[in-house]
Write a structure and sequence with these properties.
alpha/beta; TIM Barrel; three-stranded antiparallel beta sheet; globular; binds inosinic acid
Length: about 500
């Protein structure tokens, strides 16, 4: 006989709806703050806050340096994936920490490259101007889409068509952005390459970015005004990995395991707290109050919850383990609140896996989560590390689980892990720029909070009223009994009328 059988089914976020509270002037959308703690920190350090309650998942197809930079600039954070070599992950963290608004580290081209090859790369990245450098990274010139015509020049080399450095305005060792912008604005050009005293390329400034540079009031940074960087780690090579990540300035670590209720994880947290007490560690994933207590007692400063719900996840099918995310949040948050009452230590809870829409984010926050991690949502955007592809006239981006065969290839080589897969690989519909998507998502979250009459996430936790809904009610909550134009709609309309 099993020790315990829970006969009430666990619930997903989709099964709850919010009831309105009294909306007043103080809870108007424009007054709402989405600021939320990233990890517990004793002095309420401003460094460990997010300005929006969203982080991107530690996955190869989601969170590289570009996502890390753009999301931190918009108030969230990307958890940089650890299923890569220590050196390449450290390089990504360094890129985030060394980022200076406006100074772009661009993809470079070699002079001997064929125009046709360059054209293919351009199609994948969507960029129109590239710097050309030699093997020592010395700046040679620029090549942009106006410098060649693919029907005429495909067989020529980049050096045959590039604009050489003698014809270009160049900044030497400029670190002050307003000075660089001023030179660019005076130059009649769209781009300003910045080189060091030996002529090696350091960065580029683009005219199109100038207005964007001052426009990030929610940006999260450390006391030196560098962006906050969060890195995932595993329980295998953490001693070596943490050392390298700390060296390049990582701010927060997150242990990335599908089942975090393990002695390995407790050992890793304790080791990091002993050796790097200034770096907070996020533990997870767990789905029970006992898992929460175990990791918090080991020294975790935030806890990630969720198992089996991710859009690419087949853990429930493969192993029979998992739990609906709503029930998980309710159970773990109750334990967190108990712990807070007893100790005064507030441990943020992160909802992770299967959060597919903005309403799911809102429900997770209302149930007590402090922020939400998403993979699929961010994988669809320009800032994820994958290239766009066109399938049946639809623009798509690849997305694969960290437990899929594709991601496990790396782990298998290194740790001899991965006897079976826990994730799948597929495509998601391309969704455009992160900034535009976030604008809409955040507006919806604020609007729901306004309807509930709350001004911030803490108040949301205290005042939200939720209700379980029936399957019929969920159906009723969608557009129905109306012909909206597609053949499928027409068919449904005919069947029902
Ligand atoms: P999504 O937002 O629904 O796409 O879920 C993303 C989350 O799924 C990640 O943050 C992980 O917690 C989890 N995850 C990532 N890869 C896998 C996998 O291969 N199998 C199971 N879960 C995964």
């Amino acid at each position: 006989m099993a020790k315990k059988i829970h006969n009430e089914p666990s619930r997903t976020l989709m099964e709850y709806r919010l009831l309105p509270g009294l909306t007043t002037e103080r809870s108007a959308s424009s007054e709402i703050s989405l600021r939320t703690p990233l990890v517990y920190s004793p002095e309420n350090d401003k460094k460990y806050f997010l300005n929006i309650p969203l982080v991107s998942a530690a996955m190869q197809s989601v969170s590289g340096a570009r996502m890390g930079i753009e999301l931190a600039r918009l108030g969230g954070a990307a958890f940089i994936f650890c299923s890569q070599t220590i050196a390449s992950q450290a390089e990504m963290i360094a890129e985030i920490k060394n980022y200076k608004a406006g100074f772009v580290q661009p993809q470079t081209m070699r002079p001997e490259m064929k125009i046709s090859e360059m054209y293919e790369m351009r199609k994948q990245t969507g960029h129109s101007t590239f710097p050309v450098v030699d093997k020592n990274n010395k700046f040679l010139g620029l090549i942009s889409k106006w410098d060649y015509d693919i029907s005429l020049h495909a067989e020529l080399l980049v050096k045959d068509r590039m604009i050489s450095k003698q014809q270009i305005e160049i900044g030497v060792n400029i670190t002050d952005l307003s000075q660089a912008n001023q030179i660019l604005l005076e130059s009649h050009k769209s781009v300003l390459p910045i080189v060091d005293e030996d002529g090696k390329l350091l960065s580029m400034i683009f005219r199109k970015d100038i207005t964007d540079q001052t426009d990030n009031p929610l940006e999260i940074h450390d006391e030196k005004k560098r962006l906050i960087a969060v890195a995932a780690i595993n329980t295998h090579d953490y001693k070596e990995r943490v050392k390298a990540l700390v060296k390049v300035g990582v701010d927060v670590l997150s242990i990335d395991t599908s089942d975090g209720y393990t002695q390995y994880q407790s050992d890793a947290i304790k080791w990091i707290n002993r050796n790097y007490p200034e770096i907070p560690v996020i533990g997870g994933n767990i789905i029970t109050p006992s898992g929460f207590r175990y990791l918090v007692d080991a020294g975790a400063k935030a806890i990630k919850v969720g198992m089996g719900g991710g859009s690419i996840c087949i853990t429930q099918e493969q192993k029979g383990t998992g739990r609906g995310l709503a029930t998980t949040i309710i159970d773990v948050v109750a334990e967190r609140d108990k712990y807070y009452k007893k100790t005064g230590i507030y441990i943020p809870v992160i909802a992770d896996g299967g959060v597919t829409s903005t309403k799911d984010v809102t429900i997770a926050l209302a149930l007590g989560a402090d922020y939400v991690m998403m993979g699929r949502y961010f994988a669809r955007m320009d800032e994820s590390p994958t290239n766009k592809i066109v399938v049946n006239n639809r623009v798509m981006k690849p997305y694969w689980g960290e437990g899929s065969a594709r991601a496990q290839e790396w782990k298998l080589k290194r740790y001899n892990q991965g006897k079976f897969v826990e994730g799948v690989e597929g495509l998601v519909e391309y969704a455009g720029h992160l900034r535009d998507n976030l604008e809409e998502t955040l507006a919806k979250i604020k609007s729901s909070m306004s309807t509930c009459g709350v001004q911030n996430i803490r108040e949301f936790h205290e005042k939200a009223e939720l209700e379980l809904v029936s399957a019929l009610s969920i159906r009723e909550g969608k557009a129905h009994d109306i012909y909206q134009g597609s053949e499928k709609d027409q068919e449904e309309f005919n069947n029902e009328n």
